[in-house]
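Example record

The entry below shows one chain as it appears in the dataset: sequence first, then structure tokens.
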Amino acid sequence: MRNQFIAGMQNALPKNKLFPSYMEDDELKAIQCPTLLLIGDQDIQYDPRKAIARANHLVPHIQTKLVADTGHGLAMERPTTINSLMISFFSTSVNNREL
């Protein structure tokens, strides 16, 4: 399934622009809500480490996690890990918000 997903993403994206491919620095700096960015360390869409570094530099209130041995399909490849990270993030964000 992973190989089929990779093949589809590599061959479909040039023809069908389904997702925004790039956000400008000003757009990233404007994000004001708590943000969780999860990226697989085997992602082939972009350089995962550069993406994490850029997000950490530009996005206020961000938490980032490079997920080991995972590609672009994080939720399909590591559902238990991703669910745990999301639950932890949402629990912390809800508990720390100002009422």
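Notes for this example: The first strand starts at residue 35 and ends at 40. Residues 26 and 92 are 27 Å apart (CA to CA).
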